[in-house]
Structure formats: C-alpha cells, structure tokens
Amino acid sequence: MIRQSKKFLKIIPLGGLGEVGRNMTLFEWEGKILIVDMGLRMPEEDMPGVDYLVPNTEYLKGRAKDILGVVFTHGHYDHIGAIPYLLGRIWRPNLPIFASPLTRGIILKRQEDFPEQPVLKIYQVYDKSRIQLGPFRIEFVRMNHNIPDNLGLFIESPVGNIFHTSDFKFDKTPVNDLPTDFERLRSIASRKILLLMSDSTDAEEEGHSLSEKKILKNLEEIFKASKGRIIVATFSSLINRIQQIISLSEKYHRRVCLEGYSMRGNVEMCRVLGYIKARKGTFISSRQIERFSPSQITILGTGAQGESEAVLMRIALKEHPYIKIRKGDSVVFSSSVIPGNERTVQIMKDEILKQGARVFHYKMMDIHAGGHAKAEELKKMIRIMKPKFFLPIHGQYSMLVAHSQLAQEAGMKDKNIVVAENGDIINLSPRKIYLEKKKVPANYIMIDGLGVGDVGQVVLRDRQMLAKDGMFVIIVVVDKETGKVRTSPDIISRGFVYLRESKRMLMETRKKTIAIVERATGSGRAVNWSYIKDEIRNKIGKFLFQKTQRRPMVLPVVIEV
Amino acid sequence: MIRQSKKFLKIIPLGGLGEVGRNMTLFEWEGKILIVDMGLRMPEEDMPGVDYLVPNTEYLKGRAKDILGVVFTHGHYDHIGAIPYLLGRIWRPNLPIFASPLTRGIILKRQEDFPEQPVLKIYQVYDKSRIQLGPFRIEFVRMNHNIPDNLGLFIESPVGNIFHTSDFKFDKTPVNDLPTDFERLRSIASRKILLLMSDSTDAEEEGHSLSEKKILKNLEEIFKASKGRIIVATFSSLINRIQQIISLSEKYHRRVCLEGYSMRGNVEMCRVLGYIKARKGTFISSRQIERFSPSQITILGTGAQGESEAVLMRIALKEHPYIKIRKGDSVVFSSSVIPGNERTVQIMKDEILKQGARVFHYKMMDIHAGGHAKAEELKKMIRIMKPKFFLPIHGQYSMLVAHSQLAQEAGMKDKNIVVAENGDIINLSPRKIYLEKKKVPANYIMIDGLGVGDVGQVVLRDRQMLAKDGMFVIIVVVDKETGKVRTSPDIISRGFVYLRESKRMLMETRKKTIAIVERATGSGRAVNWSYIKDEIRNKIGKFLFQKTQRRPMVLPVVIEV
Q1: How far is residue A554's CA from residue A465's CA, in Å, rounded to a whole number?
Q2: What would the pLDDT profile of B220-237 be if each residue is shown by its tens digit?
Q3: Closest-approach residue (CA) in chain B for A349
C-alpha cells in the first residue's frame, strides 16, 4: 500500500476546532479509522430556524467497513449529540462503540427520542480499561469535568503515544467525584507522549478553575439564608451540580421538585446508574408544592440560559401551570451564560426581579464553575505530559492560539505546536508533525426539523432576507389573447409594512405593475415572461425602497389565462 | 388649576429604565414640561430588520406649547440619537434646546444626515451655566464620563432640588478631561438634595471603574512593543480614547489613518471645536499607508463590536479596498462588547488571528474602561449628595435593583427609594415620593428605514416566522363556471426547503390543493372562498410539517377566472 510507505498517522478534526462544540476527530492509519466523539453545537445567530449544527461526515462516505470503532469521552451533547443524525451514515452491524457507564446511559436515553434509529450496542469502559481497535491501543483515564465518568484517552498508535485530555479541569476537591489523580497522569507521561491533544476552551482565562467544593460552599450560604422557596436553574447535564442541590436540600430539610423533561429524565437515569443519590421521599411533583411551607421547597429545573421552552423562562413569563414567582423566593442561576444568550438571560432575570424574587447569578458570587482547565492548569498538564508535539483542541480559533502560547510558556517550541482547523489533515510521525495542504470537507451540516443538511446557504440567505424586510408577492393574471391584465393584481405581503396603513403605496404598485406588463405584451413581439418578471422585481423593488427604505423580497407571479 | 393643588412634581421616564439606552425623561409641573435627553437604543435580537428603538412620545402629542425646553446631558446616541425621529413630533418654532459645545456639535453633525429636518438652534451651556425654564432653574455640573463635555443637572424645582448625574464615573486621573471636582459636588449637596437620580449602568459591578490613565498606560505598552502596524478599533463616540490613540501615535512616530465615516466625521468636528488635538501631518489617507513602513502606521477605525458595515469587519473579511491584515500587525479592540455582540466579535477576532495578526482585547488587559461608576463610586455619590429620595436611572431592571441595594448600604431607607419603569409617573413632593397607578405609553417605537413606529407587533411576528421556516405561497386558478382548477397550482417558496430536491413533496402538495378546492367548489353550495383558503392553509401546513417538521408560513391565493 502506498499509504503505508508514508508512515504517517492522520488526525482529522471534523469539528470542535475553531468553534465550541461539534467535537469529532478521526485517527486514520493505513486507511483504517478510529472515531472519537460525535458532538453537536447550537447554530449561529444568522441561522434562523436551524436547530443544531453537526459535523460533515462526507470523508467517511462509503467507508463504513474502514471504521474500527467509535469512542466517546463523556456524556455532554457537544461530544455525543450528533449520534442520531450521523451514526446512520457510518453505520454497519457490529460497529464497536465504547463509553463509560454514565455516557452510555445518556446516549441510550437520548436514542429513545429517535425511535427509527438502530439499537446501539455500547461497550462499557472505565478508568484504566484498555481496548484494542486495529492498530490503536486505547487506555481510558478518568479526568475531572463537571459531569462524572469523563474519560481522557491514552492512545498507543503505530507512530507513538497520544494523550487526548477530553474536556477537563484539575479539581483537588471535587464534589460527587474523585480528585484528579496526578500520580496516574505522571505514570502515563512516563511512557512518553508523542502528541498531546488538550482542551482549549478556557485557555484565554487566567489562573485556575474553581473547585466544586467552593461552589458548594457558596450554594450552601444561599440555602442557609433563604426563608422562602429556592428555585435553581442549571443545565440538566451538570450532574454534579444537580447532586449538590439535592444534597443541600436534604440537609436543609427541603423537598425537591424536579421540573423539565430533560432534568427529570437525567436525574432518573443517573439514580438508576448510581450517579445521583437521594433519599426516599426527597422528590415531590409540582402539584405537591403547596402542601409544604416555602422554606421546605427547592425547585430544580432547566433554563438558566434563557431557553424559551425551558422551565425557568416559563415561570418568569407566568406561563407555568403550577409555579409562580412570589416575594421571598430565591432564584439561583447556577450556570454560566453561553455567548449569544446574554440578552435573553437579562430579560428573564429582570422579569423575575419584577415579580419580587431575589436573584443569585454567577457574576454576583461563585455559584457556578465551568468544567474547563484555565491557563495555569493547562500549563501544568503540558508540563506533566512533556509531549514532543502539541495540538490544542476544543475551542474557538482565538482559544487555540492562546493555548499554543501557553504551551510555549510551558517550554514547548513553536515549531512543535500545530494550530489546526476543522478539516485539516494533521500528519504525525515520530519525528514530524505537519498539516497537509489538502483539506477534507468540514463545513457545518445544519439540522432543521427532520432535515439533515438540506438547509443550505440559499435557504438560509432567503430566511435572513425575509427576516429583515419581509416579502412582497405580486400576482398578475394576463389574458393570453389580448395581453391585457385581467383584474387588479393581487398583492400578498408579510413582514414588510402594515398593509392597511399603506393603501396608497399598494395602489401605485398595482398601477406600475400593470404598466410594466402591458408595455411588454403590447409591443407586438413575442412575449418574454421572464423579462417581464425581472422588470417587475427590479422596478417595484426600487419603488418600494424609495417609499420605505426597505428591501422586501419581491416575488412576481404571472398567470396567463 | 386642579393640578396645582396637588403640589406634586411629576417625573416621567419615557425610556432608559429597565433597559440600557433610549434615555428620555420628562419633568412636569402644572402641565409644563422639561425634557432631558432623547436617546435611541439598538433593537433586540428578535426584531429583525429594525434599525433602532426610540421612546414613545404619545404623552406629548399636541402639547408642543407646554414644552419648556429640551436639555441634553452629553453627546452619546443613547442620549441624543432619537432627535431626528422624535423632535418633529414635539417641534415648535423657538423651542429652546440646550447642550454643551461638544454635544451640540455632535447633534448638528448628525442632523446633516437628515436634510428634511428643521434647522436646530441649540444654546450652548457649560459647567456652572445656569438657565431658567419655567419653574425649573437648572445649573450644569461637569461630570466625568468617556466623552468630554458631559453635564449633570442640578435642578431647582418648586418641590425641591433634584440632582441628575447624567452618565458618570469618578475619575481622579482622566485623560483629555479634568478630574472630578468633588468640592463642587459637595457644595451642591450642601444646598440640599430632595431627589438624586443616578446612573445605574454598572451598579452590578463591584469596586471602582478604571481610570483612563491606567488605560493609556496599557495602550502605551502595546505601542512600545509593536514593530508592525497598529490597528485600533473603538467607538467613534469615545472621543477621549481616540485622543489617546492619536497622542500615542505621535509620541511613537506613527501616522494615523482614520477609517470609517463616523470616525472621520467625529474627529474632524472635534478638532474644529478643540476637543481633539493633533499635529499637522499626523493624519494620512488609506492610500498613503504604503508610503510608510509598518512601524510608522496606526489605523484607527470603528467596528470593535463586530458591526457588519464597520471598518474592522471589512478588513477582517478581506473586503477593504486598501487595508489587508498582515503578519506583524497588532489589532487592538478598545471597547467593551455590548451584550448580544459577543459571537460576532469572536468570529471577527478569529478571522484576524487566522490572517496572522496579534489581537489585544479588553479581557486580556485593561485597554478599555467603561464610562460608568461602579458600586463603590455609586455609594460615594449617594453619600456625598445625601438625598432624601433616590431614583436609580439608566439601566436594566436588575441594575436598578442593584443600585437601590447600594443606596441602602449607603444608609438610605428602603421606603425613600423608588425603582420605577418606563412610563411610570413618579410623584414628588418635599415629603413624599410615590408611583401613580396610571402609566403613560412607553413601549418601543421601532425605526425601520423611513418608518417611525410603522413596524408593529404583527409585522415583527411575521418576520420572525418567515425567518424560522420561510414561506410557502400556493396559487390556484379556478374556472368560475366549472369550479375546476385550471392548471397545476403555482408554488412559490423561500427559506423553507431546497425546492429542487423536494419535487415529490411539491407534487403531492399540488394534488392535495386541487382536491381541497374541487371538493368545495363541487359541493353544489355557494362557494366559500375564505373557507377554502383556511382549508389549504391548515391541511397543507400539516402536510408540510409532517414531511419536514417545519412550519413555513402557508399563504393560499385563489384566483377565479
């Protein structure tokens, strides 16, 4: 084989580089491929109607037989969320899939929402488990994050050893999890790391991440001081935070009402698997809240990001059937705000304050910690691993650049660091790392409803245009024989102006349209309908712009009868 | 007069409370009204196509003769930007308008963009100027902000003295401005303050705001270290920052290329008025850049917020005719990021990094300071003024609440603090402050192109719907006599699916539409066209949803011939 003679391992990130989310990486040796993670991310603001973005798997088309297996690092959607959309494209019976017990539980739980999907067989792996997939020998390494059962990957490949950190932070005093095992990391490092692939999400943040213990302490202050109900909103995937709230509630004699489909589902699943512990009788339903005094109630739900369908927003907008904000309530936002959601969260916070509750959010006190190592931890990881080469992963381009600067501060040479983008082919040998000039397709695949990838640039551009100034359809019925317009043209417009207040402009538009059509049909030459349509589009577009300084999408329809 | 007997001064905020921007406040005594500021703000994310939001002035309708005058505190658009849209609605010849020289210059400069506006006569006022407007005696008080010539208002009213801080911060070492005159503030306080109205924008931020001197020092570090070009993006209204960049450029032997319409316009105007000082020969045009070595060039433009039309974005996207990013360039984002713009700024930053420049932004080092007092300064203001009553102004509801908590920490009683919203009528007498139950209209007035307020909830909802899943127009031509559909229905769809790949669905849609129409027209009864349209809308809507899980706006058109 030609490929073999090159003796390079190819690492191909299909997502997660130059963005936060959508993590998916291929490791290819002699045409055989190991896949790590299949994540999704939220769309950009200029992608109206799009539900999610997932990686482009065109490179894997027709290569199902070459895929050695899929390994998942942890159960967050930016690492597992694309499974229902992509797995069918690379599926073959007996495709080996590996995940820790909790990650597996979350994946299988989600699959229930996609009944047409194949039943997945997922092998459970644990800290220190070892598996062999073709030329790759993988040893799993427990790493701290804000979800339990997160596994880094020590990959022995034909060219050398690779350490993939997964998302991680160093936490000496975690809650509901073991502290970072630095001995273990050092022992791995002693086996020589050719390439370190490390989480860059917080590379632009100075210092160290907060320990979960500190968060717990601050949350406890709120529990101590609150005499009314405590309403906590967080991500349903923040299993450790959820455990903290449950434990505090039990300590302070509060029942816990879980609200929201994903919150209830995750807690239930985690209790079955043993990742969340709660006493019998701790949980109550929202209908039972009134049976207890406010000081005996914790409400735990989703929506700290201002998601429009989530519990907290429904409560804030007074749309929740049983739960209304009251004076004396304490509302705790225990999650950071994802860039882009600040405005919505602000509006929600304001609504809650207007209804008389106190609001606690992470900017006021440390009641949320991210799951990602900050600058000093990242340097520590590099110093422990002492890799020959370094590839920052997981993060916006500016984060990858910042991480590569940290690597230099930690003593690495610039030429041994590669800042790559999605679709790059990173060639790795014991002596060399470099990017191929060629790239594989790695653009966004948009999920909208049932469609995977059928919303493209054209549809999106139309949506943006429609959103901005609306649309304006003009329907002209023309008599085939006389070339005359039969009745006054119909106009359908939405999102442009309030039509009832624009009657004069519409009348003028009709007149102009008739003139355009009859000038052309009356010319004696053969009628060029597409020319007429262009004329209507241009001239009426200009006329409307002149009157309003807006550019609705003008769509002429000419019907001959 | 009945009003007089009540002996209450009415303070009516039409904007700026419960939001950032759109500041406008009325002071009414015996039916005579003083207006302070007329600002705009940017639209929310769910308001596509809307350019600005301005205050609702319905309360002033038909009352031009009652308006005593308009006073502007400073030249930022959130305080003056609504003038071209609203002044016409309250205009009368000889309406007295007052502003500091720079504020006046900015207002008049902007009016040039609105040639149909009346020529404004604006009286210049200065620190310590006094004017009398009906029952109100106003004394102007210089306050630090991030634009020069910012004036707080000491208003002697029939019920007592009011101090309105304008936007402010305390700066002991400002640049291009005098330090805060605490003696003056104390002397004003000694005249007894009945009501303090104070800027809440940074009430949620702990500690003190940064001094401009500190910013200058950090910017100078960049100038010292940079060997390539320095590209600085900031707001064109941050006059003091602009002066800093010009002075540093001169000190480090760099020419300054000003880029962007508003940047050039503001600098020119400020130089004429003496607010910006630059040596002869400092400025060059973008075409002259290549005549100098990179270490001799500063480019100063707008766009640190990622505004799509601004200079920095055009450079980042390689759309600028003369300026391209090169390795060695240093790009400085000297402005904070307005909530909602984070994603766009991140994308722009990443693009610039990919092109090889270094990026400096305010999160990495203090190269931007806001213009607003933080918690400790706000408490200091309250302690200096010792007001009887307190009304937090300028800010989201959460900021007003935080500011009212600060007032309590500074020793004020809860009952003497009023947290109000736009449209509230705040009644003030020497012994009492309270909100009337009645409110005046204070909803958003949306500016879109030439329209002021003609985009309402209906148009906006349509735009949101169109953005999400697009639209789907079905045109059916029906024979009047037979009731049969004449030709296969026309379908026009945009923003929904890629039509070429959905031929089968469209065919089925046409068939279903024909069936719906002919079932109704063939019934023998009189044809109910609006029923037929509803049927098409509902049934085709359902069908399309079932096929795609999307809900385009379905618009049926039935034409009888």
Answers
A1: 11
A2: 999 999 999 999 999 898
A3: B398
Look at A184-188, A238-242, A506-510 and tell me which has the smallest mean pLDDT.
Answer: A238-242
For the cut 60, the answer to whether the pLDDT of residue A4 exceeds it is no
Q: Which segments within B440-501 are labelled E, that is strand?
A: 445-448, 451-452, 471-478, 490-494
Residue B140 has pLDDT above 60, yes or no: yes
pLDDT reading at A135 higher than 80: yes
CB contact under 8 A, A466 and B464: no
> B331, B366, B435, B471: which to substitute to probe chain A, counting the most A Cβ within 10 Å?
B471
Residue reference for tokens 């512990």: A277
- Count of Cβ atoms closer than 10 Å to residue B324 Cβ: 10
B49 interaction partners in chain A (CB closer than 8 Å): 467-470, 495, 550
Query: How far off is chain B from A263, nearest CA to CA, in Å?
Result: 24
Q: How far apart are CA B268 and CA B274, in angstroms?
A: 10
List chain B residues with CB under 8 Å of A544. Answer: none
The ipTM is 0.88
Task: Verify whether the Cβ–Cβ distance B45 to A470 is below 8 Å.
Answer: no
Residues in chain B with CB shorter than 8 Å from the CB of A359 are 398
Question: Are B194 and B159 contacting, i.e. CB atoms less than 8 angstroms apart?
Answer: yes
Q: Name the pTM for this structure.
A: 0.91
**Mean pLDDT of the region B438-462:** 91
Considering only CA atoms, give the Rg of chain B: 29
- Decide: helix, strand or coil at residue A406: helix
Residues of B in contact with A44 (CB under 8 A): 343, 347
Band of residue B500 on the pLDDT scale cut at 50, 70, 90:
confident
Whether B2 has a pLDDT exceeding 50, the answer reads: no
Q: Is the pLDDT of residue B339 over 80?
A: no
Band (B548; pLDDT cuts 50, 70, 90): very high
Q: Using 50, 70 and 90 to split pLDDT, how confident is the model at A1?
A: very low
Q: Contact B475/A553, CB-based, under 8 Å? A: no
Query: Phi and psi (nearest 5°) for B385?
Result: -80, -25
pLDDT at A450: 86
Q: What are phi and psi of A274, to 5 degrees?
A: 90, 10
Scan residues 202-231 of B and list those with Cβ closer than 8 Å to A. 204
User: In the predicted model, is pLDDT for residue A552 greater than 80?
Assistant: yes
Inform me whether the C-beta atom of residue B308 falls under 8 Å from chain A C-beta atoms. Answer: no
CB B262 within 8 A of CB B271: no
Residues in B closer than 8 angstroms to A349, CB to CB, are: 396-398
pLDDT of residue B51: 93
Give me the residues of B, 493-532, that contact A with CB < 8 A.
494-498, 501
Catalytic residue among A145, A164, A372, A394: A372
Chain B, 327 to 346: residues with Cβ < 8 Å from chain A are: 339-340, 342-344, 346
Tell me if residue B70 falls in helix, strand or coil. strand
Cβ–Cβ below 8 Å for B475 and A364? no
Contact A333, A362 (CB under 8 A): yes
Q: Which ranges in B229-316 belong to alpha helices (H)?
A: 239-251, 261-273, 311-316
**The tokens of A380 are what?**
């520590």
